[in-house]
Amino acid sequence: MGVRVEIPSELVVVARRQAGLVSVGQCEVNGVGPNVRQRLITSGQWSKTARGVIDTGLTDLDRHPLDTGRLRIAWRGVLAVRNSAAVSVPALALLGAWGLPVTFDPEVGLPFGRHRRSREGIIVRQYDFEMSTVIIDGCRVATADWALAQALPRLDRFTAIAVMDSLRYQGILDDAGFERAQKLARRRRGIAGRHGWFGESDPRAESPPESRARLLCVDAGMPPDDLQRDLVDDDGEFLGRGDLLWYLGGGRWLVVEIDGAEYHSGEPALRRDTVRQNRMIGSGRTTMLRFYPDELTTGQFTPRIRSVLRSESWSPTRPIPPR
Q1: Do the Cβ atoms of 178 and 162 come closer than 8 Å?
Q2: Is residue 285 very low, low, confident or very high in pLDDT (cuts 50, 70, 90)?
Q3: Per-residue pLDDT tens for 255-268?
Q4: How far lies 253's CA from each of 210, 212, 312, 322, in Å?
Q5: Which neighbouring-strand residues pair with 122?
Q6: Furthest CA-CA distance within the chain
Q7: Cα separation, 263 vs 259, whole angstroms
């Protein structure tokens, strides 16, 4: 049985930040030379994932496994291609966008449109020198406006709009940046038919499932009257905030809540949700439907909402009370 090699703490920090991946250069800087690296690889403690890139298996355990997988793809590209910047979907992952696909291609761009052949599944793009970038954890990344414009041809409508919503909700992309992304997108190949997606984005959506639920309702001809609205009783006491809301008249609302452990922070948050929802229902003015993200694809989501709206004679033209 081989002796387990102790990894320098400085390199452990780097590896956890980079979803478990490190470059050969980072190993050298932190005192892990070729002989030690080979011992770690031979023993199975480490593995090669691309030329010059090593998977240490040292990941941030507080990060969701799906997020770790997305970041691993992004880091693999920029570590394997020296002096490159993460672009497109990988850039969005590094910027912190929610709702991205579980898997996608590593994509990088080189400065001044320099060309280098794609290799080992890593796509090397030639983007013009005007592309703006930021540094995240030592990695050069396309800014959110450029990354969104680059990624749109690779995303379906539901995913793209959920990503737009998350960038705006988190403040990663402000209104000016959102307008720049629209202008940049017009210059991209494969963008035909996608320009209208910008108009469907709403920064009030607090999670990708909420974005998808909203779009499903819009497509079904029953767009929500409001999103993330605070409800109060006759005395002005706060009852709770609803995700998607339809006004039923007479001070009454249909509230649709989209639950999901991935977008909450454990049991305390779920308990707070339960208290909040019970308070709204107890007011006698709220009809509530609750769905988990996987129910949005079963075909039962919009029919259940439509049934309530029909029974209440809901109309999309009915004026709603001011906030």
Answers
A1: no
A2: confident
A3: 999 986 554 444 45
A4: 18, 21, 10, 13
A5: 119
A6: 76
A7: 8
